[in-house]
Design goal:
This protein is an alpha+beta fold. The chain contains eight helices and 20 strands. Strands 6-7-8-3-9-10 form a six-stranded mixed beta sheet, with helices on both faces. A five-stranded antiparallel beta sheet has the order 13-12-11-14-20. The longest helix is centred in the middle third of the chain and has 18 residues. It is elongated and about 75 Å long. Bound molecules: adenosine-5'-triphosphate. Adenosine-5'-triphosphate binds next to strand 2 and helix 1.
């Protein structure tokens, strides 16, 4: 790591509202220039954490540092931080340029300076041709880009984005993901993005903090969180997964030997915190499974195909295991040449490599 201080360090931060603890001793660091996402279901405390960074909420216990300095006593308008909200909050009677320049004038910049900077920002978000329109004459996506331009205009070091895409329809939301990511790269500003949408988080973020019930569940790069979830909550919340209850018999050489309820033996990846004798869940992603009519050299579990569901990009096969619950196998259309699909009622083996099967700490 370089000597550049982290953009944000949250150290043992607790937030209480009366008797209710919204955040339970959260510690995390956000690097400078990073696209960082706080991801979790409604009510998990992501907005609370964002508002504490912005200075709209105080920290009950613990501390938050911005580029190495504690910010406890710094009011929101003195922090080098700006926020983009879900509902844009544009001024309806002002033009696009006036909306973008407004905050600058409030900060004491001259009218002409504010206009010039607004022009640059509108170029950045590719809205120069709409500079003289009123917000009501723009689409939802364009309005959100004006809100972004306005938030970026004062050159914050950190931009906080609170579910900024949730008011947009799906297609626009998907297009805006790339725009936001590009904007972050171009400006080099640290983005802290709040969402409950795991796909949004996976596609945009350098790193993701997964939260639930006021606790940090896991922090890591998107691929890492998807492929190596630490616990049941993360495995279940991010993407789709098969969860099987297993007993751990032995751990050796980075692999765990386990068995299912009916006794069938399986080899899984070893996971820190899980020892021999434990009864835990094993998670395996549906796209890491394949079907065969004979057992293979991989881990093979016998079952009966219940149904095949066509979901556009792939086929979802639901299979009742002889020795356990149902599993879902996903076969992408591009793999259908070399992976078999079985008709409902057929006997088949569900196969997985040991490295795809992951034990979870509950
Ligand atoms: N001012 C407040 N007084 C009391 N409780 C609050 C207050 N603000 C938030 N909470 C509670 O704290 C918890 C976390 O809220 P927060 O808004 O941070 O969740 P969130 O993860 O951002 O959810 P959402 O995605 O629904 O916005 C919730 O249970 C909420 O009801």
């Amino acid at each position: 790591m370089s000597d550049t201080p982290n953009a944000i360090d949250v150290v043992d931060a607790i937030k209480r509202y009366g008797d209710f603890t919204a955040l339970q001793k959260i510690s995390l660091s956000i690097y400078d220039n990073e696209f960082f996402t706080l991801l979790g279901p409604s009510g998990c405390g992501k907005t609370t954490l964002l508002r504490m960074i912005a200075g709209f909420e105080d920290v009950t216990e613990g501390a938050i540092f911005l580029f190495g300095d504690e910010i406890e006593d710094l009011p929101p308008n003195k922090r080098p931080v700006n926020t983009v909200f879900q509902n844009y909050a544009l001024f309806p009677h002002m033009t696009v340029t006036e909306n973008v320049g407004f905050g600058l004038e409030m900060r004491g910049r001259s009218k002409s300076e504010a206009r010039a900077r607004a022009g640059e920002m509108l170029e950045l978000v590719q809205l120069s041709q709409f500079a003289d329109r009123k917000p009501s004459q723009l689409s939802g996506g364009q309005q959100q880009r004006v809100a972004l331009a306005r938030a970026l205009a004062p050159q914050p070091k950190v931009l906080l984005l609170d579910e900024p895409l949730s008011a947009l329809d799906l297609k626009l939301r998907q297009a805006m993901r790339f725009e936001l990511k590009e904007l972050q790269r171009e400006t080099g500003i640290t983005f802290i993005f709040v969402t409950h949408d795991q796909e949004e988080a996976l596609t945009m973020s350098d790193r993701i903090a997964v939260m639930s019930a006021g606790k940090l569940q896991q922090l890591g790069e998107a691929k890492d969180i998807y492929e190596r979830p630490h616990n049941m909550f993360v495995a279940d919340f991010i993407g789709e997964t098969n969860l099987l209850e297993v007993s751990v018999d032995q751990i050796a050489g980075g692999r765990a030997t386990c068995h299912l309820g009916g006794g069938h033996e399986l080899t899984c990846n070893e996971v820190e915190g899980v020892g021999a004798g434990a009864r835990v869940h094993m998670s395996v992603r549906p796209e890491r499974l394949f079907l065969s009519d004979e057992p293979t050299e991989s881990e093979s579990l016998k079952g009966t195909v219940r149904d095949n569901i066509f979901v556009g990009t792939d086929i979802q096969t639901i299979i009742d295991l002889a020795d356990g619950p149902q599993m879902i196998v996903r076969t992408s259309n591009s793999e259908r040449g070399n992976k078999r699909i079985f008709d409902p009622g057929a006997q088949a083996y569900v196969n997985m490599e040991a490295e795809a099967a992951r034990l979870l700490v509950d």
